[in-house]
Design goal:
- With 566 residues, the protein is mainly alpha-helical.
- The protein contains 26 helices and 6 strands.
- The protein has a 4-stranded mixed sheet with strand order 3-4-6-5.
- Strand 1 and strand 2 form a beta hairpin.
- It is globular, with a radius of gyration of 25 Å.
Length: 566
Amino acid sequence: MTTVLADEAAPQAQPRRGGRRSPYWWPLVALPAAAVVVYTVLTRRLTGDLHYVLGALRTGRAAGYSPSEIFTHRPYFYRWFIAGLDRLTFGGTTVREALMGAAGALLAAAAAYALYVVLRGRLTGREAALTAGATGLALALAPRNDFLQPEWAAVVLTVFAVAAALGLSRPWPAALLAALPFGLAVMMKYSTAATAAIGVLLVYAVDRGRAVRLALVGVPAAVALFGLSLLGGSHEWQWTEDMPQINQSALSRTGIHPSFMLDRSVEFLADRAVESPVLLLLPGALLLVLSRVQRRGRRLELLLVALTIGLGAQAVVIVQGNWFLYHGAQMPVLAAMLWGLAVGGARRSVPWCFGAVSLLYGALPVLYAQAPTDWQRTYVAWVFGLVALLAAVVDVLRARATAGRPARLLWPVALAGVVCLAASIWPGSPHLVQYGKVRMTGTEYLAGMRNSEAEADRLRAQMPAGAPVLYLAFGDTTYYVDHPARCRYPIATFLQRTRYLADVTELKSYRENADCIDHGTAPYAILDRAWFRPAKVDPALWRRITAAYECPRSTADTMTVLCRRK
């Protein structure tokens, strides 16, 4: 952070203690940003993974189970986080999702404000506002696949932890205050410990002593919270052991193949950047920040910190092995934070070239999705990243050739950042990108959800209101049908995984899930043959299902059918 990270701050750039008035141009940036956030809350809707979690929590709650006792493939504290947000909602599906979106946006705004309050005591007002503002916008305007996911929640909590660690004047009380959000960030998914570690590195870049204290206090806090989750949920340790065993892509099953991991990382980062183009600006933003650091040793130290953060953010994607884009949800937020710092800290000249590229990249996802398939290549995204880096180089050279007053008139560049951060939420932007190809746009995803809702209406019409159901279908069906389950495993995740991994049958969670079929049997079952695949799952399991239920054949129009208990 310029006056904190750099050591060449001009007197005009030093932060002022005591109330400093906001620049008169801030409404030109804040009002469009607020309008985009409102549009996003009203139109984004939730992704299928959230449907899975909410479907399990709602149908499990109707069966008499609390979030502590319902399996959703997510840890204890994240289940309670989503359940808490869900309890705030009311009305139909669209209204409830908009209310959850509004709650998430408020959390992002609160985290950004906490960061701003801390930074304005260490940076200039302009730097603090742009850094915190870009961070909050990156969270509030996160792509649908990221929003409210465990990785997203961990980033929000980590921002609170960083603000707490740097906010209080006394280091040890600051570390104690930061320990709770730090530990909760770890608890969102366990792999999100990497996000919490990134928070420690960010604090280290500002104050080494506080970073050490945060680590010393935060790690025991995370362990204590994990112990609390074991006490609060009777099955938590069992699920902690069993969940990794149903991931066929985990490194523990596939082994370590460096060449594959490197190639796949190159593809993943390109896909992630197509969905969130602010990531393309990260190298250029880093160059702009480092160019303001005079001492070579300090510049090298900050570069090493940045590289460690980057490797850590990618390592957690590699370890999980699924290469889902939301596993890198922390990446665009870090890029946005660095972008705000780079632009807000401009002193000798406005980074017009970098700002122009930021503005153009605001249209990149929509244009990329509309481009011919042959043009959608991994290397294209890397070329765009190189262009952004070259623009930053030009701005650095211009700044070195300029002397005099600090840079003025930054609001057009700040507004370009808002456009760039909003790029992923437009209907025509990519919803899913794999190997450089856009597999689905936001418009196509929403159309698919409308089809799922219509399919659920068809299934509900064949049952009495409130009739219990055994769900042999994925989250979207469970979410939209919304009939109560009779089991702590509302969605048959463990049963379905025998389609890929025969040894899942040896897990205790699998046996408990299978008992839902013929013990306290629900009068109806919903079978999605595309997801559950009767010919692929464990044969003994399928015999148990057919012994309990009569399932009609699928039709050309749908693979999902309603089965009745024999």
